[in-house]
Amino acid sequence: MEKGGVKILITILVILIIVAGGILAYKITKDKEQNNTQPVANEEEEKIIAEVEEKEVQIFKGNDRPIAVMIDNHNLAWPQAGLNQAYMVYEIIVEGGETRLMALFKGVDLEKIGPVRSARHYFIDYAMENDAIYVHFGQSPQAQTDIKKYGINDINGISEDGTTFWRVKDKYAPHNAVTSTEKLLQSAKNKNYKTVSTKESVLNYVTDEVNLAEGQDATNVTIPHSDLQTVQYTYDAENKVYKRFARNKAQTDWDTGEPVTTKNIIITFCDNYTLADREDKGRQGLKNIGTFDGYYITNGKAIKIQCEKSARDEQTVYKDMNGNEIQVNDGNTFVNICPINAEVTFGSSAQ
Fold it and tell me: Number of folded domains in the chain?
């Protein structure tokens, strides 16, 4: 090849190298720009997601089916495990002036719940209105009849295989049977119970803070369920929750020792009565179908409400005195169902 041809070939190769280098440089620059802008896009997306979640009710979300667990409330059963993780806890009188609790859990993972105690038939009403799997350790004759009558998806510790429930050594029977959400869900699946639910919450939760400006002062609340069992709630203004006391004793978590607290308190006045059954153990009934007086309490204030339940399996509707369904703060709730003549008192002084 002559010199002129070689020069031309070299010139062409140089041009190709320059062009290729330019293309490579352009691609690198674009990749850097995309890499630099991608985190910004991710940050914007995360911000939007956070804002959406902030406006979503947290205490009751997702499609996990609720689990309602009967909790022993005898003083020998204290302290209890799991109450702070329940979205609702019902407290109702049983025989002997004692009360029993029913704690409702949704979408939580708890290694210990309890002590678990036996079923009473009127608690089934509140399990049904929450579309919950009903968990208990034993049952009254009335509860046994109603579980069958209403086709309740229940898990009874007495008839389980010995792994769903277990007894701990730091308490004595019958106050020492416990369980976990993992064990309960496994039992539910073994029984072919549905473990998802689209049923709406009983309470009308809102994300904006509810402050009962027109309500009466209620930084201290005293609820006498019976001569034996009086419950008190004391408002913790710093954390905007109520600390729970029973029989003048602070209620704490079994494992953590932290105070049992609640964001909301609902009081419903319903008459209870002694059943005339063959066992003559003083078991109770509850007149809870109809419209009943009550209170809604949150953030240091209380308002009068009406509690309407039209049937055992229908959801209770809580309304203000103008007939509007009340808005409830996004947080856990204790529902105290006490006798009509219970002298509930409110105060503003410290406990």
Answer: 3
